[in-house]
Amino acid sequence: VQLVESGGDLVQPGGSLRLSCAASGFPFRLSYMSWYHQAPGRGREWVATISLTGATTTYVDSVKGRFTVSRDNAKNTLYLQMESLKPEDTAVYYCYVKVGAQEYWGQGTQVTVSS
Length: 115
Known about the structure:
By secondary structure, the protein is an all-beta fold. The protein is built from no helices and eleven strands. The strands form two sheets. Strands 2, 4, 5, 6, 9, 10 and 11 form a seven-stranded mixed beta sheet that branches. It is globular. The termini are far apart.
């Protein structure tokens, strides 16, 4: 299993970013996918989850209305569209999947929101 995130950057408050996660080594279209983040000095926290077809998405309250999780099963890629970014969104963002009983994480991509 390999999960490779990309798209992180330094952005000003109010800006936007789109993160991507390229997945391989497991049946992507048969797997729920999630995003987590880890802010400086804090533990890893759940951000969003998307169902197999993308019909159902769930979000932590702090990002509802600002972030959108989506997937392209033909490309084995997960996305996180981030709008109206705030300094408190600064974190390393990770792609996550559970295959059977095993959990997998990507290496993370850094998002920094600062003026």
